[in-house]
């Protein structure tokens, strides 16, 4: 091959750029110092847009704008609901799982967006033969190109954050809710007349207090905790987040040694909320978000618990590992400027997740009534 067809040498290219900007090449030390300062300043600006922070530079998640509980959904809206999700998002994944477990696929159609390089959720024009296929595709409700366009199309418009999941009223052209926990509560108990599996209750009255207790622990320290690690903008904020994350995982690991699920012998909404973070842990959070103290596969009970939930067919069908990895590694530029995607870790491979979990014998006994619930 002719040398004229060879790609330019990166070192020569950098040298040429520095000569253009500053004349003769800068000394290596000065060049590194200059680039480091410029990059750090740019990183701060990008992170401030990506991840709002508190005075310690710890990540602060903005509250959801549109809230709605099951008893607040108008009856006329219940037959015109449309769900918007993105597959990388653990919050959106919750809604897909409960929708599938309750058998609401026909009653609540879904449009699946992909994260764009500019940070927006975008729809593709790919044709989908199966309307329930869990892959990115077009906006089936409004024909929009981006989720932001959908939000803006509501009565009165909207200029806030365009997040997933989002539940849309296709008749009224209105956002019903964009808070994931509100949506899964609605799917669990508010649409039973439309569900194929109305008898399933993932939040039965005797377990409600336990579910709320677990959520109060899991949400700040695990669900949001991994983001507090990854989006920390100071060492202090990172240290606090990572210690709280792994202290909580240690507690759950111990609890699951004698309790099949978080609240005893039955799957609940608390388990769904924990699962969507666990299934992404070794795939993404351990590496990209610096949650490096342990891999999830190093927790025998947690990993087996995750495998058991994954082996529920309706749950496995909602898991798209390719979309999850690409969604994080390819689009979170401030955390991964080169957009290089690592190989899938062994503990997250489909074949490994199908290994026997041996948790069937762990019924409501022993520590299933955990000390966490003792006042």
Automatic annotation (TrEMBL):
Provide the site residues for: Lowers pKa of active site Cys.
285, 328
Q: Which domain of life is it from?
A: Eukaryota
Please state every residue range assigned to the domain named GST C-terminal.
204-346
GO cellular component, alphabetical, reads: cytoplasm
InterPro entries cross-referenced by the UniProt entry: Glutathione-S-Trfase_C-like, Glutathione-S-Trfase_C_sf, Glutathione_S-Trfase, Glutathione_S-Trfase_N, GST_Omega-like_C, GST_Omega/GSH, Thioredoxin-like_sf
Q: Which residues form the active site?
A: 89, 227
List ligand-binding residues for glutathione.
121, 161-164, 179-180
Q: Name one GO molecular function term.
A: glutathione transferase activity
Q: Kindly provide the name given to this protein in its UniProt entry.
A: GST C-terminal domain-containing protein
């Amino acid at each position: 091959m002719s040398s004229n067809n060879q790609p330019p040498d990166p070192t020569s290219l950098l040298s040429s750029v520095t000569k253009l900007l500053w004349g003769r090449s800068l000394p290596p030390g000065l060049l590194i110092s200059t680039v480091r300062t410029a990059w750090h300043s740019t990183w701060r600006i990008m992170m401030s847009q990506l991840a709002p922070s508190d005075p310690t530079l710890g990540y602060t998640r903005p509250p959801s704008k549109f809230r709605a509980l099951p008893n607040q959904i108008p009856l006329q809206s219940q037959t015109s609901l449309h769900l918007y999700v993105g597959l990388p998002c653990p919050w959106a994944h919750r809604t897909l799982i409960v929708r599938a477990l309750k058998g609401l696929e026909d009653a609540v159609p879904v449009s699946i967006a992909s994260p764009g390089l500019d940070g927006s959720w975008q729809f593709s024009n790919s044709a989908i033969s199966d309307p329930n296929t869990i892959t990115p595709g077009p906006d089936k409700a409004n024909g929009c190109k981006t989720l932001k366009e959908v939000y803006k199309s509501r009565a009165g418009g909207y200029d806030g954050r365009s997040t997933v999941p989002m539940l849309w009223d296709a008749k009224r052209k209105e956002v019903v809710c964009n808070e994931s926990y509100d949506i899964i509560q609605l799917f669990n108990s508010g649409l039973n007349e439309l569900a194929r599996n109305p008898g399933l209750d993932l939040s039965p009255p005797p377990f409600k207090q336990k579910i709320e207790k677990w959520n109060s622990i899991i949400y700040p320290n695990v669900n949001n905790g991994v983001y507090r690690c990854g989006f920390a903008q100071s060492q202090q904020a990172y240290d606090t987040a990572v210690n709280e994350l792994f202290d909580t995982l240690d507690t759950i690991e111990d609890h699951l040694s004698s309790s099949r699920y978080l609240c005893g012998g039955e799957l609940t909404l608390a388990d769904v909320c924990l699962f969507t973070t666990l299934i992404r842990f070794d795939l993404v959070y351990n590496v990209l978000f610096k949650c490096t103290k342990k891999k999830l596969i190093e927790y025998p009970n947690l990993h087996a618990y995750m495998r058991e939930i994954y082996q529920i067919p309706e749950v496995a069908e909602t898991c798209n590992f390719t979309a999850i990895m690409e969604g994080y590694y390819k689009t979170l530029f401030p955390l991964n400027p080169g957009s290089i995607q690592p190989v899938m870790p062994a503990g997250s491979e489909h074949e490994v997740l199908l290994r026997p979990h041996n948790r069937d014998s762990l019924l409501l006994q022993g520590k299933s009534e955990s000390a966490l619930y003792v006042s």
